[in-house]
Write a structure and sequence with these properties.
11 helices; elongated; 227 residues; mainly alpha; two-stranded antiparallel ribbon
């Protein structure tokens, strides 16, 4: 997405919006250093102070991280996710608790509202997840597992819940990786499957779907507390 020269009114807000869009649309991936203040100022047609103020605002929300003497890096793709990263850090237990709150209701709604196409997508993601598990491709596995859970929430057709969950994509993927038994050096523990959850949604059984979602997250929380 090419950056456009801004108008003179509300310069900081305009710069914030353009930088936010560049981050959320993947123009600058997570972990990448963004252009310098001088470079951004030239692209946007504003001064360094305006750029600095906009960057500071986005760093406060958690989208960007300013590293003194090194540059500014992308930290998250949404402000919700950025806020969770700041608040939770490595507190895996808290992330799992938030996931349980959202995913149990998401599963219940999905069992009522899902379409046949969405059910097919869930089974397709589980098949891909199984291959990645078998081949011990832990990064792909973590992404696919997180994508499956997002697909479950999305199938509930509650836009606000979906948007809240989408904003947690990075921390959810990180929690999957942290609790996965196929990460390097992890001892063997049987991986938690999600076929029961997909089946309950396919059968339009909201109570069983909610119980399935709650059950595997409770198990992950127990593993975390025992670790």
């Amino acid at each position: 997405m090419p950056l456009a020269t801004t108008r003179r009114a509300g310069l900081v807000d305009q710069v914030i919006e353009q930088l936010r869009t560049a981050v959320t649309q993947g123009e600058w991936p997570i972990g990448e250093r963004i252009p310098t203040e001088i470079e951004l100022g030239e692209q946007l047609g504003v001064g360094r102070n305006t750029v600095r103020e906009a960057v500071r605002a986005l760093a406060h929300t958690g989208l960007l991280e300013v590293r003194q003497g090194d540059g500014t890096y992308v930290r998250a793709t949404s402000e919700v996710s950025g806020a969770i990263r700041r608040l939770c850090g490595s507190e895996l237990r808290e992330v799992l608790q938030v996931r349980r709150t959202l995913e149990v209701e998401g599963a219940r709604l999905a069992a009522v509202e899902r379409t046949r196409e969405e059910v097919a997508e869930l089974w397709s993601l589980l098949a891909r997840r199984e291959v990645e598990l078998r081949e011990r491709r832990w990064q792909d596995f973590a992404r696919t597992d997180a994508e499956f859970h997002y697909a479950v929430v999305r199938a509930g057709h509650n836009r606000l819940l979906t948007e809240l969950y989408r904003g947690l994509t990075e921390v959810i993927t990180a929690s999957v990786a942290a609790t996965s038994t196929i990460t390097p050096g992890a001892g063997y523990v049987p991986e938690i499957g999600h076929e029961g959850l997909a089946d309950a949604i396919a059968e339009q059984d909201p109570e069983r779907a909610a119980a399935e979602a709650c059950g595997f997250l409770d198990e992950l929380l127990e593993r975390t507390e025992r670790a």
